[in-house]
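Hi, here's the filled form for the chain we discussed.

Project: internal
Contact: R.S.
Residues: 636
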Amino acid sequence: MSNERIFDEAREQVRKIVPSHINITSIDFEGPIVVIYTQDMEAFASNNDIVRQLAQGLRKRVAIRPDPSMLADPDSVEKRIREIIPEDAQITDIYFEPETGEVTIEAMAPGLVIGKQGSVLNEIKKEVGWAPKVVRAPPIPSKTVSDIRNYLRNEKVQNERKDFLRKVGRRLARPKLEGESWIRMTALGGYREVGRSASLLSTRESKVLIDCGIDASDSGKPYFDAPEIQPLDRLDAIVITHAHLDHCGLLPALYKYGYDGPVYCTAPTRDLMSLLLLDSIKVSAGENKKVPFDSADVREMVKRCIPLKYGETTDIAPDVRLTFQNAGHILGSAVCHFHIGDGLYNIAFSGDMKFERTWLFNATTNKFPRLETMIIESTYGGYHDIQPSRTDAATQLKGIIERTFARNGKVLVPVFAVGRSQEVMLVIEELMRTGKIDKAPVYLDGMIFEATAIHTAYPEYLNSQLRTQIFQMGQNPFLSDIFKRVDSQDMREKICNDPESCIVLATGGMVNGGPVLEYIKCWAHEPTNSMVFVGYQAEGTMGRKIQKGVSELNMMEKGKPIQVSFKMGTETVDGFSGHSDRRQLINYIATLEPKPERIIICHGEEHKCIDLASAIYKKFGIETRAPMNLETIRVK
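And the returned structure, exactly as it came back:
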């Protein structure tokens, strides 16, 4: 059956279900969604059954949108909205999405935008034609979120994106192949190692790439020259589990080398990816290193992102449906659940995961409708990898700060901008607010402040306790006056030379680059100072060398090699990790519903992958594999 015949059948079905008096102006496939444009939005709004029947009949997500001819000019609509809404609502932004016919009103007091019993919102609905959506303004404005919204609002970009989504829709609706069904998983990176994560899921019908990261220590790349993944334009989709560069650091480069399809991820992952990828270009330029992409490629990636919420199921290939669930690792991190064929097989990729409620997030989701194979990380899967609890970690950090301040020293914490830094901020803020440690300035250097702003733009991804504290109790720990943003080299130098005790959170989580190096050059020779590791240090990184007790560091200063004597105290606080430890990984398997038939281990040093696979097999009797890179496993 041809594409056009499939479209014609879908259109016929829509017209059978929708009553004849409702005026439908066009029906199209845009990405994974069947979009129905109408001049009778009210008729659909007053009859939810129609949309439900359409989704069931078409077996696809359905969106009802106003015909473009009904949408008034955005400038005049914005002016009228601002006239209707009281000033006390404190509107911070109004942005339009012609794709959906929605206008989003962002305000500090969203209740005043809605009005008593929805009176203000109803007036807006009657007058402007666009469908209004009200959101609370983030407490910290994010330049990244704002720039991405403005970019996607650009008329040229919107037209290009619409054409792109139609192309994706046609590719999704292509006729299915006849013959025997099979499913394979190929390890392209991140197997028996940490870094350059990449996995290829192949069926008779389709190919889906899960993650495409770089190696933490030497910018090594996945095996993208393997015949299974070439040519890149044969890929149906790329799915990104989360925004750390060892999982997405090569994504923009794929658009330079032939890929032109969609990227599926959560909205916060899209925004954090953009922030980290653009920063990696800047950092590499400063270190005279080559990056295989530029900012134009990052924009291309953003244009092709199709963001999904947790629990939202969508088609990403003719025979593959994707659902994201919370992974608990960083903001927007996801377990990717793939439903293949018409009930043929179910496989999930955990990505990086934390099976414990943390200060920021709920624990990894462990319940699925169906599950035959689980691919799970093993960063801390070794026999001795038992981490302290979050409470113990806070106590340990408190002790380190107290001892360092007592000897008039400074505390340096190398962090990834996303995840660990926000958790450490929450702990330090509580310790200082409650008087458990002396107040002192806490400097945030690198992208930490901007990454924190993105966290406040997506409160629905934080755990309920933190959301309540920020939005209902009016206590936003991220806005504490102890936090100072480092925004210039002059300020950095002033902090380095200040004799007073302080805490610095600086990016360069594995001490391989970033502003953390500047503080090391200034403070490393002084044994009164402390360096505190709160995240994983991969083999080959400077962070791992420092952990092992190195006394001299080879560094660069203005393009010339220098030697730095390292005498500052070194501490590791494992309880802040965004990865599950051995006990949590075993508990996760024990509580998985349903129990999978097979477990594949990845993202861990070789001996940890093998050890965890052996332990799971002995304890649960489940088939386990710890493949090497370039191995292919037939799972069905």
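Let me know if anything looks off before we file it.
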